[in-house]
Amino acid sequence: MGPSDRVRRAHWGDFEGLNLAGLVRLSFELGRDDPSANVRRLPLTGKDIKGREEQEKDCRAYVESRRGTYIHTYMEPDTSAWKRKRVQLPDGSYAYRVVRPIFEGALEDLKRGTTPNGDRLDGLIVYDIDRLTRDNRHLEDAIEVVEHFGRPIMDITGTLDLLTDNGRTVARIVVATNNKQSADTARRVRRKHRALELAGIPTGGRRPFGWHADKRTLNPAEAEVIRETAQRILQGAPLSAIVNDWNDRGILTPLGNKWTNQTVKTVFRNPRICGYRSRNVREINPQTGTESFRVEIVRDDAGEPVIGQFEAILSVDEWDAVTAVIGNHAIAGRGKNTRTYLLTGTLRCGKDDCGCKLRALKAHASRVKDPNRFYYTCEAKNKGGCGGGVSIPGQETDAWVTAAVIRKYEMEAQRREAQTTPEPWPQEGELAEVREDLRELSAARKERRISANRYFAMLPELEQQERELLADRERWLAKTATAGTSLATIRDDWDGYPLAQKRAYIEEALAAVIVHPSNGRRGFHPERIELVWREA
């Protein structure tokens, strides 16, 4: 049987001798809030058919009633025939496409003329055009199969006709109309979610850590863990120590998993812990094409944060301080730290034309009584150092530098206690001006005082200024947040800190520690050490 014979016989409704497969798709294209969604209409349309088994039964009966053979069913899961996803094209670029692997596989099988089981395949049957596609690109792929490969694609309701020129033209119009209906539904859903955001109402998804399943009332035990950990972060505790502590205590994520650095950061970066309504935002790097997600504060039309209809765990000031420490990227010395000596990475060789980092070297057991004895020494020449030309006893150096750092922090704590008000961020006024400009620009557009072209031309520059100022404020708060908590007691607390936390304090205070040559003197001499403090 030739290709034209298959199409002609399908057009006449004579399926005798044809092996046909069915394509059934579970879909929720019609919103549940649509008043017509709960009204059962007769006869049924593709929008009403939700069950794949019911679609398969009707397709099989339709084929067999016309003396055809029903040989296979292509089962699609809850797959949208309209919503586009970001995909990478063969040339490495990115585009947005409707992704339906089962549908695309069915078209490839039609081109080959065989099912996945190896049976001969002559055509495809669907319940109606809505089950086939809502995307014009996919419709053209289906038309190609009919026109150029002679494999008929039909429906059982009579709304789909890809077998004639007029039918294909009508199909293009119907798919375009269905596509618009899906776009209208998506727009209504976005509007609804925006209204929920502005009202501060929490929406679906799994429960956030710190709250009960209603997403409104606090889980007392988890909320207390968050408050306690927030203070530890402000005191300089490294994130890895917090993660280990939570896992050792048997604290689990809302999904019942163990914690990681990233999941702990997600908890503390979420504005909801201070009472603000938040939302997830997708961002795409224009250079690399990579996709990332972040959580941001929902703001009203005046640019003010929206207060959520749920209990807060931290105050706004506490949350600002914590996020200033955590930031968008790991701060040096606060993440995972595998170093086992206090000052490696901070000590530098003071020999002329060197400046290499010093490494720790265990003393030979036969030459010292203390098995823990070690030295800091310059790297070998093949690693960029001066070949051990500068060396200094490790334990004495650790103690001397530690004492200097503790004294520095104590002086800073005394200075802060003497201030009657916290030191403000110097560019707060500039940020307020930029936000006012954004509000005025938005108002001008709403009142039609400026064109859309001008609005969108001016908007990116102001938004970039706002992002840069907010990043600068984060850096400013990061410098002041740690010192403003418990530095007055750092001397008493020091011995109880883990090594990574001690390193964090030292690296926050010191840009480098330069060790000058001994000039023939043995032992530890503090005058060889030069401290390079970080600028405030």
TrEMBL record:
Pfam families: Recombinase (PF07508), Resolvase (PF00239), Zn_ribbon_recom (PF13408). Residues 208-332 form the Recombinase domain. GO terms for molecular function: DNA binding; DNA strand exchange activity. Gene3D superfamilies: Putative Large Serine Recombinase, Chain B, Domain 2 (3.90.1750.20), Resolvase, N-terminal catalytic domain (3.40.50.1390). InterPro entries: DNA_bind_recomb_sf, DNA_bind_recombinase_dom, Resolv_N, Resolvase-like_N_sf, SSR_resolvase, Zn_ribbon_recom_dom. This is Site-specific DNA recombinase.
